[in-house]
Structure formats: C-alpha cells, structure tokens
Design goal:
heterodimer, A: 522 residues, mainly alpha, two-stranded antiparallel ribbon, 2 strands, globular, B: 200 residues, Four Helix Bundle (Hemerythrin (Met), subunit A), 3 domains
Chain lengths: 522, 200
C-alpha cells in the first residue's frame, strides 16, 4: 500500500469548476428570488476564472499568452510580468500526468480548455435573453452548463479510457437535460429523446470498443495502450475490431455521416440557446476525444483508422452540403453545414501518416485543430444571429425570417454576411484559411482526389450560404419589428463577427498557436 | 470436468435461457422476473471467479433495488402490448441481419483463439485472508479516485436533470406548505373584533 497523494495543481481548473458547481447549486437553492441571476453571474465568473487558471497551470500556454500580451501597448509588458509571476514557484513540466496517470496536463489540453470554456461563456451570454423570454432561465440551466464544461475539461485532459468516458458522459448527460429543458415544448422533448437514445447507443459502441482494446492490450491508460501496440504485444485482429467501434463512437459525437442522424433533428428541436451550446464547445471536446483516443492511444493503427476516417469525411462533406441545399429551416441548414464542417476536421486528422512516414502529423493535426476552433467561432456567431432575431413568442427559424434584414438593421446584416461568407470558405475570412490549411495537409499527404471532392462540394455548398445573403440584401422584409438586444449581446456579437474577419486577415497567430500546442504536446 | 466447470455451465445455461426469455416473453412482468433470474445467475458466476463483493452488490443493487423499482413501474403503467408489437415483422429482416452480423463478428473475435487460456493466462491464486472487498475499496479510493469522484458528479448531473425535468407546480392543486404552517402566528388565524354590545 504505497499510495502517493496525487498532484492537484495540473487539475486546478477542473477542481475550481467542480467546487463552484456545488456552490452555485447550494446558493441558488437558498437565494430563491434572484436564483437565476445569481447562478448566471457565478457561472460566467467561474468559466472566465477557469479559463484563466487553465492558462496559468500550463507553462507553455502561459509563455505564449504572455508573449502576446507583452506586445500590447500601455501596460502590456507589466501585465505579462504579473501573469508570469502568478505561476512562479510551480515550475511544472511541459507534459504532466497526475491522478495515477488518468489526467494529463499539456498545452494541447490547456488551449482547447480555454477555447471551450470561453465558447460556453459566450453561448450563455447570447442565450440569456432567449431563455428569459421563454421563462426557462431556471438556475439549473446554468448549473448544467457548468457541469457540461467540467465534463469537456475532463475529456480534453483524459489519459485513461475511464476518465475519458466519465467526461464524455458528464457532458452528454448535461446536454440531454438542456435539450429537454423547455418542458412545455413537445419538439424539444422529442429531440432530447432522440439525442438520448442515439447517444446511449454511441456510448455503448464506444465502451464495447474500449473493452476490446483493453482485452488486447491489458491497459486502459492511453500511453500504456500505445506502448503495448508498439511492442506488438497485442493481437491485431482484436485491436482492429475494437478500433471500429471506437471510431464509430467518436464519429457519433462529432456528428459525421453515417452517425449524423441526430444532428438535424436535435439542432432543430432544441431551444436555439441550447443548439448554440451543442454546436460550439462540445465539438472541440469531441475533437480532443478523437486526438486522445486515435492519436495518443492508437497511433500505431493510423493506417487502419485513417481509411475509416476517409470514408466518414467524404460522406459527410458530400451529404452535408447536398442536404443543406434542400433546407428551408435555418437551424437545420446550419446543422447540415456543421456535418460537412466536421467532415473537413476529419480530413485534417486523416492526413497525418503517409506510408508510415510521420512527418506530416504535426501539420495535419494542427490544421484540423485550427479548423475546429474556427468552426466554433463561426458557429457561435451564426446561431447568435438566429437568437438575435428571435423574441418572446417568435422563433426566427426559417431562412425567410432573414428576408430584408439589411433594411431592418444593416449592421447585423453585414455581420451575418461575414459569417456566411466565412462558412462558405470565401477569402479572406477565417473559414477560407481553415479550409485552405486542411486541404494543404490533404494534398501533402497525397490524397489529391480527396481535396478535389472537398473543393467541389464546398463550391456547391456556397450556394446555400449565399442564398441567405441574397435573402438579406435583395428581398423585402416581411416583418418590420426592430431588432432589440441587450447591449452586451450586441457588443459581443459584433466582436464575434469582426473576429471572423480580422482572424481571416491575420490567421497566422491562431494557426501557429495551434501548431505550437501540438508540438509541445505530442 | 471438475465440479466448478459443471457449476459454471449450469449457471450459464440458466442465464442464457433467462436472457432469451426476457426478450421473448409476452408479459412484461414475466420479462422483468426473468431479468432478475439472469442477474442472480450472473452473481453466481461472479462468485465462481472469487469476486464475492461484486456478486453481492449485483444481487443487492440490481435485484434488490433496481428490479423492484422496475417491476413497480411495469405494474403501475398500463402498457399496450399490441401497439408495441406493431411493425415487428417489417423491422425483423433489418434487425435480424444486424444481429446475425454482430453475433458472427463477436464469435470470430471472442472465440478461444484470442481470449482463450493460452492468450490470457490464469491469474495466480490468492493467499488465505485475501479480501476482494478490501482490495476493491483500496483501489477505488487511491488509484481510481479521479474517476470515482467524477462518477459522483455524474450522479449529481442525473439528479439535477431528473428533478428539473419533473418537479413542477401544477395550478389548482390543493396542497399545504409546511413551512408556512409552522411559521403561522396567532394574529393570522384569529381576528379580534371590538364591537359594541347589542341589545335585543
């Protein structure tokens, strides 16, 4: 019995979120009248602080952020020094494992955590007015979104099948609850039911795959699995059998064809604020899950899973773009567009190893990560616009609701145009560079036909994005209600839309951050 | 074949039979009871593997708590069996195909070739005084404390979701609020009215 108390420092952000979730639950039980406002405020504070702590506990990320801050005018240099001094004395390693190897703290995890926590915070801010209008802004919603964030953080930092699965279930269960949160809406209940049943099925597939991998390698720890496969101690047939189920589980969580059936129905049926939540941060967590399982654990089997991902990504890009054309509901259209975007993320993941040569890996995986991050930024803005047009008793769900937006409010029409152009991959917005870097990785890996298919399909896909722009600018408004929104939503949505444009002009910073994170973690 | 193997085969046969009856019996109460039987035999198989704690927990938690609740729900709800069986024959070919595919795949992988005694040697026998329960507890609170704590938070999520989805105040329901009742003052209930005496 020689047990060493684990090092809690790398998991400081997770512990903060877990403790605050419990505090918020108790506080909102006792503060009845202001419970919702209190829970909202505390949740936002916790998310922002947790993002800050995630930066502080990851030395590489901290150095990168300090370098950026010291470039800022005025107090930039001082601020960077203060930031660095906060983490002094905790000279953690670049990659540190704790909790008996179940938790891994590295820069990849740190960066993804920061992005997903901020995405949740933004999604909550956009959705607050929407929920209040529909009288469903109960404190449990904020509690669940915090616990969902905790699940994502656990997933992102998982180095063990058990912790990965725990994080995945915590995230999914909270999301099922949030989808069903509008109890009066039969559509939301139906969507939650579909999401739950299919999600449980996917979890079952994933668990089955995990048990097969465990049976073959005798280890649940991802690094142990990688070692066992490297030493050829494991039986290949059993491994590949397990791999099939693991890829299926990951594909479901990413929402790619043929495991996409839940995406359009859930996106359409859920309250828009929850759709916004599902379509943003969880995609980053699912990307992290794919990285941890496939790249960290089963890298030796790259040949096998790359072929599977190739099928999934081609099908997703083709079906996602073609099906989106036929949609008249904008939430459904964005759902299909999300499917095709996830296909592009897989394109980056499948270009890592060519004939056993691993020199492409860094470039390919960082392009996939850059794609995932830029998709989340675009998705936040697009569903943020859908929420902005909705009001009490009215859901802006169809593309027709965007008719003549330019006449009603030209600023928001311009923002929506930026988002749509970026999603279509028109230069020079962030979506263009995301597509470009993924396609570069695919071409470098020698899959030219794959790149051709992807480009052709994006051209077809541009049709439905541009249709929204056409409807906004060249048609008469049916509904002339002025667009009202709180100041902070206007400000943040504008910042979000402008970020797409600015990052499109200067994508180097974010791209190199992604590449550096992978370099420091792989 | 020694006695242990014989017991294993008997228990397994009962379990497979019970599991089949769970999905084939027409009466949901019978199905639930067959599920109880399969859990109990699974507990017996755990015992054969010297995992006595798991065996007892399986019987106590699943049979004692979960299945009783399940039976209770089945008896409370009036399930229309004919509606459940609608479309059975039209779904059968697809379902059967997937089922057969899964069985064949599993048989290929799970056969003796990969997980047999040659590939997975028998673990060394434990010495006297070895406690399965103690070992499990030690592991749960040391090496596996991280997923263990996460599991507790997961249960919290389930609880919060369940309560927030089902707890609601219906209108027009006559109910008393205990805290209001306790906090009531004499002045709320009795009103003293001063009025002049009346003559007849």
């Amino acid at each position: 019995m020689n047990f060493v108390v684990p090092d809690f420092y790398p998991a400081a952000a997770e512990i903060l979120v877990a403790v605050m979730a419990l505090v918020i639950m108790l506080a909102s039980t006792f503060a009845r009248r202001v419970a919702s406002d209190l829970a909202y405020g505390l949740t936002q504070l916790t998310l922002v602080f947790a993002a800050l702590v995630s930066v502080l506990v990851s030395p590489n990320l901290l150095a990168a952020v300090a370098a950026v801050i010291s470039e800022l005018p005025l107090f930039g240099v001082r601020l960077a020094e203060v930031l660095m001094s906060l983490a002094e004395g905790y000279a953690a390693n670049e990659v540190v494992a704790t909790f008996s190897g179940m938790f891994i703290g590295d820069m990849l995890g740190g960066l993804l955590k920061v992005f997903s926590l901020l995405a949740v915070a933004i999604a909550l801010l956009y959705g607050r007015g929407y929920l209040a209008d529909r009288k469903i802004d109960r404190p449990e919603y904020y509690l669940l979104s915090l616990l969902m964030s905790l699940g994502m953080m656990v997933m992102i930092s998982a180095n063990h099948m058990l912790s990965l699965y725990m994080g995945l279930e915590m995230m999914s269960l909270s999301l099922y609850g949030m989808v069903a949160f509008d109890r009066e809406s039969p559509r939301a209940t139906e969507a939650a039911m579909k999401y739950f049943v299919l999600g449980a099925l996917a979890s079952g597939l994933l668990l089955y795959g995990m048990s097969m991998i465990y049976g073959a390698t005798g280890s649940l720890e991802l690094s142990g699995i990688a070692q066992s496969i490297y030493h050829q101690a494991a039986n290949k047939t059993v491994l590949v059998f397990g791999l099939v189920f693991i890829v299926a589980g990951v594909a479901f969580k990413l929402g790619v064809v043929p495991f996409h059936m839940w995406v359009p129905d859930v996106y359409q049926g859920a309250p828009t604020a929850v759709t916004l939540m599902i379509s943003s941060a969880p995609k980053l967590a699912a990307f992290a899950m794919a990285m941890r399982l496939l790249v960290y654990g089963l890298f030796e089997l790259a040949d096998q899973w790359q072929t599977m991902l190739m099928f999934l990504s081609v099908l997703s890009i083709v079906l996602g773009n073609l099906a989106a054309i036929a949609q008249s509901n904008i939430k459904r259209m964005l759902a299909y567009s999300g499917i095709s975007h996830m296909g592009f993320v897989l394109l980056g993941l499948l270009a890592g190893v060519v004939d056993g040569d691993r020199n492409f890996a860094l470039n390919a995986y960082s392009s996939a990560m850059f794609y995932a991050v830029s998709y989340v930024i675009m998705s936040l803005a697009s569903f943020g616009m859908v929420i902005l047009l909705s009001r009490a008793g009215f859901e802006a769900e169809t593309i027709d609701d965007f008719k003549g937006l330019n006449k009603r409010n030209s600023w928001f029409a311009a923002l929506m145009m930026i988002v749509m152009f970026s999603m279509a991959g028109i230069p020079f917005f962030i979506g263009f560079f995301a597509k470009l870097s993924v396609l570069q990785a695919v071409v470098a890996a020698g899959y030219v036909w794959l790149a051709v298919v992807a480009v052709l399909m994006s051209v077809i896909g541009a049709f439905y994005y541009l249709r929204v722009v056409k409807v906004m600018y060249f048609e008469e408004p049916v509904d002339s209600t002025p667009i009202r929104a709180q100041g902070e939503v206007r400000f943040l949505l504008s910042a979000n839309g402008l970020a797409i444009a600015v990052l499109g002009l200067l994508p180097q910073g974010l791209m190199s951050l992604c590449a550096y994170a992978l370099l420091a973690s792989l | 074949m020694d006695f242990k193997t014989l017991v294993f085969y008997i228990l397994s046969a009962i379990m497979v039979f019970a599991a089949l009856r769970v999905i084939t019996s027409r009466n949901p109460v019978h199905a639930a009871l067959f599920l109880v039987l399969s859990f109990v035999t699974a507990g017996g198989i755990w015992l054969l593997l010297a995992a006595e704690f798991l065996a007892i927990v399986l019987v106590m938690v699943y049979v004692g708590a979960v299945m009783v609740l399940f039976l209770f729900v089945v008896m409370m709800l009036d399930i229309n069996l004919d509606r459940l069986r609608e479309g059975f024959w039209s779904y059968l070919p697809v379902g059967a195909l997937i089922g057969i595919l899964l069985v064949v795949e599993m048989a290929l992988v799970l056969g003796g070739r990969y997980f047999g005694l040659e590939a997975m040697p028998e673990p060394p026998a434990v010495q006297a005084g070895y406690s399965n329960t103690r070992e499990l507890g030690r592991l749960l609170y040391t090496d596996y404390v991280y997923p263990f704590e996460l599991a507790s938070l997961l249960l919290l999520v389930a609880m919060v979701v369940a309560v927030s989805l089902t707890l609601r105040k219906r209108k027009g329901l006559r109910q008393v609020n205990p805290s209001d009742q306790v906090a009531v003052k004499r002045g709320d209930r009795v009103e003293l009215v001063s009025m002049p005496a009346e003559k007849e």
